[in-house]
Amino acid sequence: MRIDVVSIFPEYLAPLELSLIGKARQDGLLDLRVHDLRDFTTDRHRTVDDTPYGGGAGMVMKPEPWAQALAAVADVSAEQPAAAGSAVAPRPVLIVPSPAGERFTQAAAQELAEEDRLVFACGRYEGIDERVMEWAQEHFTVRPMSLGDYVLNGGEVAVLAMVEAVGRLLPGVVGNPESLVEESHSDGLLEYPVYTKPSSWRDREVPAVLLSGNHGKIAQWRRHEQYRRTAERRPDLLAEFDAGKLPRADRTAFADLGYDVVDGRLRRRPDTAGEQN
Ligand code: 6GU
Question: Which of 7, 145, 147, 150 to mutate to test the pocket of ligand 1 (most atoms within 8 A of CB)?
Answer without folding.
Answer: 147
